[in-house]
Amino acid sequence: MGTEGSTMLEPVWRGLPPIDAPGVSGSASCSLPARFEAVQGARRFTGATLEQWNLPDMFDEVALVVSELVTNALRHGVSGSHPDGPPRAESETQVRLHLMRWHSRLVCAVRDPSEKSPVAGEADAGQESGRGLYLVESFTDDWGWHPLAGTLRGKVVWALFLLPRPR
Length: 167
Prior knowledge:
Blueprint: H1 3-8, H2 10-13, E1 24-32, H3 38-52, H4 59-78, H5 90-93, E2 95-102, E3 105-112, H6 132-139, E4 142-147, E5 155-162
Antiparallel strand pairs: 1-2, 2-3, 3-5, 4-5
């Protein structure tokens, strides 16, 4: 992972056990277009990455969480970001998915250009929309978000999965 990724995700590590450099075993990221079809691409990317990392049994939970985070980024982070402001450069408006693996944990992080905090919505009975962050909370060991610093604008929403111990 490059300098941008490690700096951007620094707040993710606060409050977690220390991560030693030899424990890092993989990272992957991809840019996603600002279209809802990107959710399917994010799921494929997640599946291929988990397969490469020999974690295919985690696909259902991780793909569900990635789908929710990407959907929220597209729905609230791209379309809702600075409607009255000047047009943004293409690189600023992209949603980016990061997957990082250590020996004991997996982090999924989605970056979007909005500076608004994610809010768990109240869904009415029978409504599908509004439950995304509750699902994220239910299927992960922790999740959170933080605004980007420096020249990057927007935020990162992340989800943490503890990995099963090897047998």
